[in-house]
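Need Serine/threonine phosphatase stp's 3D structure for a figure. Predict it.
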Amino acid sequence: MKKIYASSTHVGIVREENQDAVFVGTNQYHNIIALVCDGLGGYKGGAIASTLTRDLIRDNFLSTNFNKLSDEKMEEWFKKVLLKCKKQIAKYIDEYDKQFQKEHDNVSLKQMATTIVLSIIANEKIYTFW
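Structure prediction for Serine/threonine phosphatase stp:
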């Protein structure tokens, strides 16, 4: 079956930077994902947080066979991936915040964060997490 995906983002009316990171696709197990991460406006690093999060979720999605997971295991998968995302953002802040402050008038990345909404189609169901 041929699948066609599309996504669109917009910076909005208030912000100058689009902090959206999107992935829509299929893995080798024929599961489908639609993922949107949107950096929290008003805080520096939102685009970084949303991109790091999108990439980590995408990579974990691509390597997982959701057809073999129960509803409970699907929720466990999301919680584990969410924890990995939090740790990855914290690690990025630890590694780059001092350098970022030097380059951006002491503005810190410590509050950088992102929202996450994703749906996965597997097991003839749609699983949605946020």
